[in-house]
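Bumping with the actual sequence this time:
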Amino acid sequence: MPEMHEVDYEIFGDDMQYVEVELDPGEAAVAEAGAMMFMEEGIVMETIFGDGSRKAQQTGFLGSLLGAGKRLVTGESLFMTVFGNGGEGKRRVGFGAPYPGKILPMHLSELGGELVAQKDSFLCAAKGVEIGIAFQKRIGVGLFGGEGFIMQRLTGDGWAFCHAGGTMKEKTLAPGEKIRVDTGCIVALTPSVDYDIEFVGGIKSAIFGGEGLFFATLTGPGRIWLQSLPMSRLAGRILAGATTQRKGEGSILGGLGNLLDGDGV
């Protein structure tokens, strides 16, 4: 059996997408714990340490334990789940996006065999794709990079699927071309892209700008994928809406205002 499983796939939906991965007999896909939406009869599910790649298998239990430890550093679960086709015909397994956005199919062989992704954007991949960590080397990135400091490194030559929140923007940077983005809006980038952190500049902008103190500066050459709605921003807006008083709602209306809006008391 080849090291990298050559799976077929189909993506369904618009804003809340899911991907169906078609597995031939003996093929398998690996996914984050909890990403599975459905699996057809004949699919065998196994929870493993590490990523199930050939490299992890060759290094035995110690290699699997090291891979699991790397995942713990990125804030992910110690375990991953392998979905293998133990039947005779083709079988499908579906993986759902965690929140509104787009699922991005990435064929690693077309990207030079390696991709650096935001630690919470990875959804699933063909078995054989190695899932490690990528530390950003600069001190500034380490101190102020926030979500972009510790990222996942996907290596291999098969399909990997990432999730971008909201609307996705893909851009190819020319050599020396720069773009400044919010650190949370980075989904993935090719390793040739240089990653650094830049201070917003100006005390007034830093305090009252509402965009944070630092931007990520990405410099080409290479390809980048950005998202308009990172999970941290979505969660922050939901939390703010749930814990703060609505504009125009004063002590005179109080619970009456909630009743008029249909929110109850």
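The tokens above came from a reply further down the thread. Residues 8-241 form a domain with the Double-stranded beta-helix fold (CATH 3.60.160.10).
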